[in-house]
Amino acid sequence: MKIGRFVLLVASLVWSGGTSGADPAPAAASRDAPVAPGAAPEAVALLEFLHRVSGKWILAGQQETVDWFGADNAPEFPYVLATTGREPAVRGFDFMFTSDSRNTHQRIAERIIAWGRRGGIATACFHWFAGPAGVYEGRPRQAFYTADTDFDLSRALTPGTAEHEEFVREMDVVAAELLRVRDAGVPVIWRPFHECDGGWFWWGAKGPVVFRQAWRFMFERFTQVHGLNNLLWCYNPTEAAGAPEAWYPGDEYVDIVGLDVYPAAGTRPTFASDSARFAGLTGDRKPVALSENGAIPDPDALFADGARWSWFCTWNGFFTMDGVVNPPEFLSRVYNHPRVLTLDELVDVRGARDLAPAVLLEPVDVVAPAGTSVALSVLVSGSEPIVYRWFKDGVEMAGEEGASLRIRTLDASSIGAYRVEATNAAGTVASRVAEVALGSGPAAAERSRIVNLSTRGVTAGAGAEVIAGFVIAGPGSKRVLVRGVGPELVEYGVTVPMADPLLRLTTAHGAPLARSDDWALEGEASASAEAFAIAGAFPLVDGSRDAALVVDLPPGHYTAIVSPAVGGDGIVLAEIYDLDPEAAARLVNVSTRGTVGDGERVMIAGLVTAGDSPVELLVRAVGPGLETLVANPLADPLLGLARASDGSVLAFNEAWDGHGDVAALVAATARAGGFPLVSGSRDAALLQVRPPGGYTAIVRGGQGAGGTALVEIYEVPPGP
C-alpha cells in the first residue's frame, strides 16, 4: 500500500461531491446498467465501480502474453512487479488459440478465475482464427488478419452456409470457456471484434453494417442461448475519424467504449479529445477506457487534460519490457502515481465498497396446528455484516437478530403479521409481511421423515456439471446444510474425485441464491464445521477445496449445481442435510441429472430417514424419458436400491411397468408430484416402504452403455 493513499481513496469513493483537479463522476441517475439481461451481481458491481473511478483515477492494466501451450503467459507481470513494486489492477486476456484446433492447453478460463480471486479485473479479447486452413507464421492454421484469410463475415451471418456453421461453432467454443468463468462468479470485460474499423481483421472487412449485425448476433447468442450474464460488453474501435459513430452497435448492446491506440514512438498523448468524444457517443452514460495502448500516457498530463479513461492496458512484449516504449523509471512513476490504482489498492478499495441489501427469498405465510414448531426466514444478498430486525404486528421483537425466526410452539399468541428488516452500511431493505395462523390437525407430524439426501455423480467435458434438485414442503422454513464434496472422497475409496468443486444454489427457475467454493477459506467456515456435527455429516478437512453452505429456505423447489471451479472433472457428492428436524417443514425429494459411465462412474442417490415408523419411497431412474431434453440419454437404466449400512440389494428394476403393482406406482407418482413415465419405456422405478435408516439408489447403464440420466427419490405422502 502506498503510504497516505488508501485513506484518500476510500474517502473520495464514498464522498458524494467532486474531486480536486478533476471533473466529478457522472451522477448515478445518468449511468447505464449492464446491458446483459439478468446481469450477474458481480458484473453490476464492476460497472458501478468503473463509473465511480472514471475521472478520479485510472486503473493500471497489462495485457498478458499469448502462449500457444499456455505455459508462460505472464513474463510482463514479474517484470512490472520488479520494476515498480506494484502489480496492475487490470489483466488483459486473449482467447486467440481457443477455437483454433480446439486448443486445450491455454487454460484461459482458469487464469481469469485465478486473477479474479486475487481481486483483479479481467478484460478479454479474441483474435479469432477463421476461414480455410493456410500457412500463418510458419504453421498451418487459420488466420485473423484480413490479408491472410478469405473468411466472409456477411456469409457467416447467413444461415445454411459453411461460414455460418463455423462462425457459430467457434463462438460456442469460447462461450463454453466463459461459462466456466461465470460459474466461478468472476465478471469479465468482454471486447469482441476489437479494432473493427481498422480493416486489418476479417471482422471489419465488410464494413460497419455487417459488423453491427455480427456484434448483435454474438450478443444475443451469448446472453440468450448461453446465459452469459457476467460480461460487460466493451466496444473498442481505433481513433479513425468517424469510425466510433459509424460502427457503434447501439446503446442496448454496449456497456463500455474503449480505444485501442499505439502512438508514435517517443510520444505520450493523453487522447483527451477522444475520451470526450467517446463519452459523448453515449451521452456520458457509459465508462470509456484505453482498452489497448503502446506508450502509457503521463498521468499528470492525462488528468490535467481532463481525460476520463477508466483504465489503460499496455500491450504485451516489447511495449512493456524493451525499456524504450515505457522506460523503467517512467513505468515506476506511473504505477506509483497517487491517481493510478494498482492491484493492492484495488483489492482494498473494492472491498470497501458496500452493496445494499436485497431480498432474494421472502418469508412465507404459515398455517399450522397448535404445538407445531415452525420457522420464518429471509435470504438477503449484500455486503456483510448484515443486521436483522424482526417485527410482529409492527412492533420490534427483542433479541431476534438473525435471518431466521423460530416459533418453537405455535399457539394463539403466535398469530400475527411478521416482517424483517435487513440493514448494512449501504442501506436497509424490508421483507414482505408473512401471516402466521393456526390450522387444524395434530400438533406435530407423527410419521418419520427424510433427514439427509445425497447424490453422487461425475462430470466430464467442458460445461459438465452435477445437478441436484431438492424440494422442501410444509409450513414455514427449513434450515439446511448443502455440500459439494470432491477431494474428501479420496478417503472413501474414490480414485477420480473432482479436485475443486464449485457449489451454486439456485431456485428451480435458475435465480442465483448462494454459492460456495473452498469452504474453509470462507467467512462461515466455523459455522459450517459446527453444522457438519449437528447434521451428522462426515467432517471436511480444514483447507480442503470442498464446498458447503448453511441456508434457511422456505418451501419450494431448489437446485444445487456442482461443477469444477478450475478445471478437473471427476466424481463429486452433492448433499442436503436437515439442520432443524423439529421444524414442521420437510425435505421430501431429491433428483440428480448427470452422466452415467462405466466402472465407478455410476450415478448414486442416497437418503437417511429418521423416526419411529416406515417411510414410503418412490425411487426412479429416467433415461429414455429425457430424450427430448438431452443429447445423449441413457438408453437402458438399471436401478438398484441397497441398504447403506452393508450394501445389500433390497430391490431392482429395469423397465418400470414390466412387473410389480403398476397401478400403485402410478398413484404414488401422482401423490409425490413426479412427472409420468411413458408406458413401455425402459425407464426404471421402484415403490418401497422401508423402516428408518440409510438407503442408496444406484444407476448403471444396461450392457455397459453410458449417457445422461435422472435419478429421483421421493417421500410419498399418505393417500387413499
CATH domain class name of the largest domain:
Alpha Beta
In the predicted model, the low-confidence regions spanning at least 5 consecutive residues are 1-29
Helix content: 10-25%
How many strand elements?
38
Radius of gyration, in angstroms, nearest whole number: 28 Å
* The CATH H-level homologous superfamily of the largest domain: Glycosidases
* CATH fold-level assignment of the largest domain: TIM Barrel
Termini, distance in Å?
Answer: 71 Å
Largest sheet report: 8 strands, parallel
Coarse structural class: alpha+beta
What's the shape? globular
Count of alpha and pi helical runs: 15
Total separate domains: 3
* CATH architecture assignment name of the largest domain: Alpha-Beta Barrel
Could you explain how this protein is built, in words?
The chain has 720 residues and is of the alpha+beta class. It has three domains: 5-20 and 33-352, Glycosidases (TIM Barrel, Alpha-Beta Barrel); 358-439, Immunoglobulins (Immunoglobulin-like, Sandwich); 449-715, no CATH class. The protein is built from 15 helices and 38 strands. The protein has an eight-stranded parallel beta sheet, with helices on both faces. It has an eight-stranded antiparallel beta sheet with strand order 28-25-30-23-32-37-34-35, with helices on one face. An eight-stranded antiparallel beta sheet has the order 27-26-29-24-31-38-33-36, covered by helices on one side. A hairpin with a 2-residue loop joins strand 20 and strand 21 (427-430). Mean pLDDT is 84; it is low at 1-29.
